Amino acid sequence: MFLTGTMKINDQGHLEIGGIDTLELVKDFGTPLWVIDEEGLRRNCRMLKEAFARWGDSVVAYASKSLCNMAICTIVAQEGLSLDVVSGGELFTALLAGFPAEKILFHGNNKDPEEIRMALQAGVGRIIVDNFHELELLNSIAEEYGHDVDIMLRITPGVEAHTHEYIQTGQIDSKFGFTLTDGQAMEGVKAAVNSPKLNLTGLHYHIGSQIFDMEPFRHTTALMMKFIAQIKEETGQEIYELDVGGGFGIFYTQGDRPGNPEDWAEAVMTTVQEKARYYGLTVPLVIIEPGRAISGPAGITLYTIGSFKEVTGIRKYIAVDGGMTDNIRTALYGAQYSALLANKADQQPVETVSIAGKCCESGDMLIWDIRLPQVESGDILAVFATGAYNYTMSSNYNRLPRPAMVLVNQGCADLILKRETYADLLRNDLLPDRLKNR
Ligand code: LLP
Question: Is the distance from the beta carbon of residue 248 to the nearest atom of ligand 1 less than 6 Å?
């Protein structure tokens, strides 16, 4: 189940991805190494696009927060997707990669004036306004530029999706969006309609991430359609776009039961269409913003196994040459991963071990209790589904340089992110003169 895209076990019993033996990748690029399966990534883009297109007008905007760099933005643009960005940095990357500005949606709960100016100058397609402060700020900056700006409003629907508390976003007590249940959302709509430079085209919700149950999508979409009807009745304003966010869950370990994109498409699109009929509304264009579902399964991380520690009768720790600096999700969310030994991929598991990172922190664990073949120092561990929220959440804790990232396809491997060097770590360090001469 974790062998997705072009991954397979080759005749030597090694893990292969993009037509290349992972041991070759290790020889050429070292470890830790993020590997992105280009074909897998493209397939995921197409699968989602096709699933929604089958039901009607829809746009897939890839959530770049899950994995963002020049190469990834380029591939996503080639696949004809739109792009969700949440910061000046993501926007800058996308623009530099040549992503069409009109296909970029700019999110974020505290966009600063510089970021807003950058977005307006570039001509991004939509700004998703998160709060009253931003409505005013955006309107006044739009006045400087002298042109109208198409916006959507982020609505907090008051829906709790069953996922980790830190990656739920639809609940009332959330820093995001205009609350639906206390009238704030309607106030926000009226303020937007009355902002001379802002053109309200749509509404947006995002209820959380790594969601398997489609019911919250169905339910929230229905709430939003009801709200759209109320808006029309109270203000006469038509809403032409409904952006239902991302959150589609993927397979990490045996306990995970992801649906397929058709389930998500069916839940959202049929609800939109039924409710449009029911309330006598024009069917809005549906926008989805999957991040993890596109980038997650397309990535693996390769590590070299180093030291061991056995706590008698309790646990065997095995340490790799990376850790929470390249994948903080286990430490932060208790996330679980599947892995295998890339050089012993055809061997049966014989022992239960726990995979530790190399940072000075007890919580720096990648996998608790995984069954593997006999593990030896020098073996290569491949961790699956690390394409999303690994690189983009990475750090230099303990002054560890970040790994390289390589893009593989049909036997070719291209570096798309250079391995950081110690010099890179010092790049921004400054030593004031007064400290030098003591
Ligand atoms: N749209 C909006 C407005 C979002 O806030 C997010 C994710 C997405 C789309 C994409 O969600 P996805 O399809 O990737 O689930 N760092 C956490 C995930 C945080 C997601 C934040 N927002 C993790 O590692 O699980």
Answer: yes
Structure tokens at 212: 């398997």
Model pTM above 0.70: yes
Q: Is the dihedral of CA 57, 63, 67, 73 positive or negative?
A: positive
Sign, Cα dihedral of 191, 196, 61, 270? positive
Catalytic member of 45, 359, 360, 412 = 360
Asked whether the beta carbons of 226 and 188 are under 8 A apart, the reply is: no
Q: Is 360 a catalytic residue?
A: yes
Tokens of 257: 């039961």
Q: Does ligand 1 come within 6 angstroms of the Cβ of 170? A: no
Q: Report the atom number in ligand 1 closest to the C-alpha of 389.
A: 24
Q: Contact 231/189 with Cβ under 8 angstroms?
A: yes
Nearest to 104 by CA among 348, 289, 352: 289
**pLDDT tens-digit profile of 21-44?**
999 999 999 999 999 999 999 999
C-alpha span between 111 and 134 (Å, rounded): 8
Note if the bond before 32 is cis, omega within 30 degrees: yes
Closest approach atom of ligand 1 to CA 329: 24
Q: 430 CB contacts (<8 Å, ≥6 apart)? A: none
Q: How far is the CA of 120 from the centre of ligand 1 (A)?
A: 24
To 10 degrees, the CA torsion angle through 345, 351, 354, 358? -60
Burial 403-422 (b: 16+ CB within 10 A, else e): bbbbbbbeeebeebbebbee
- pLDDT over 60 at 408, yes or no: yes
Instruction: Reduce the DSSP state of residue 83 to 3 states and report it.
Output: strand
Give yes or no for a contact between 366 and 325, defined as CB atoms under 8 angstroms apart.
Answer: no
For residues 223 and 173, the answer to whether their CB atoms sit within 8 Å is no
The conformation of residue 11, written as its DSSP 8-state character, comes to: T
Average pLDDT rounded to a whole number, residues 349-363: 98
Digit-coded pLDDT (tens) for 86-132? 999 999 999 999 999 999 999 999 999 999 999 999 999 999 999 99
pLDDT at residue 1, as a whole number: 61
DSSP state string for 193-250: HT-TTEEEEEEE---BSSB--SHHHHHHHHHHHHHHHHHHHHH-----EEE----B--
